[in-house]
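quick one before i forget lol
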Amino acid sequence: MRGGSVRTGRAMAAGGRSWFRALALGVSFLKCLLIPAYYSTDFEVHRNWLAITHNLPLSQWYYEATSEWTLDYPPFFAWFEYALSHVAKYFDPKMLVIENLNYTSHATVLFQRFSVIFTDILFIYAVRECCRCVNGKRAAKDILEKPTFILAVLLLWNFGLLIVDHIHFQYNGFLFGLMLLSVARLCQKRYLEGALLFAVLLHFKHIYVYVAPAYGIYLLRSYCFTANNAGLKCNFLDPTKIPKASMTGGLVQEFQHTVLPSVTPLATLICTFISILPSVFCLWFKPQGPRGFLQCLVLCALSSFMFGWHVHEKAILLAILPLSLLSVQRAKDAGIYLILTTTGHFSLFPLLFTPPEIPIKILLMLLFTVYSFSSLKSLFRRERPLLNWLETIYLIQLVPLEILCEIIFPLTPWKGHFPFIPLLLTSVYCALGITYAWLKLYISVLTERISVRQKAE
């Protein structure tokens, strides 16, 4: 009997590896199909950084200004570009010439695209580790209804990450891989590994400082200050300066409004700090384990997204991806996830504005959204509906909004005089949904902590 159970366990593990491998290979193949698609100015940004790090000594990396797209990421990303440059020279050495601004040979495009796909291996590994942390109470005979399978699809096939990295062009995949891997290590109570991974992540891209309060408080509460050890296990603190973020453009610039009052960085810093305080207090006084940490992480990301200064729309992925882990655990979190992911992903549509990409982005988002709704509804079919009628109506209205912005408005005479109208409508409408999801998650966290406190009393 024992030998039979061992063989059964091995067979189940092999089956798990097979479906995960199929998902990973499938999405990698899709990324290859997107290679000829439109790419943004970020393509030239990273080509220039390849050239800078390859040709100049370290002391000049952050001072070279032949191109307007100067190197402005933390040191680890600069070394990452330096490593890539030694592979890039075998594809097309001309891409490494600093003066070759906006150089886009076929070999350059292939290298840049494949470098993103290849580095996504770290993201794939991190997703697998996160799937191992999912609570297995909701066991299902059908693999398609298993929480681990649903989570793997929601992360690996995430619509926003696909279009931002593999059409618009950036290297967010392996960075989110580092973040998810650090989350997985914290869930596995491997605190020092999780802390090290997040510290490395901060040295790759400064935007992840948004969620640093969640990491700091959780590590202090769960590792440093514990019931068994009231002392401080760490002998050091490494203060991180919050860098200036950019607006939707690639350059970091300050703008003064002509009609609306101009918002200062100090004002946004105060608003952001106040907005994250309740979640941080909840994490400290009522930690609730890894789930409480994830809730705080998402709230910190959303608060920084809503109140931060010069925040790019792509930063919404910083909240959507970790919320995916919560969505397969509870029906309440699944409903919030559906609202946030649908409106957050729709807000990324203006990034792809060329005609050939319109059917691609609509189809990919439609497929991902339909799967998200159907899979989570099936997972929690024995519980209350995930969305109420008002939330459902709000999300359905995204369809006529897209038709108005992409089809009707370009045919009107207003296009020449008011070209900003589609972006304005999309931003305002999606802001309503994102704000609602933020408030709903906050209310859920606070009421949950209050109920726990009352039960304890």
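fyi DSSP finds 19 helices and no strands in the chain.
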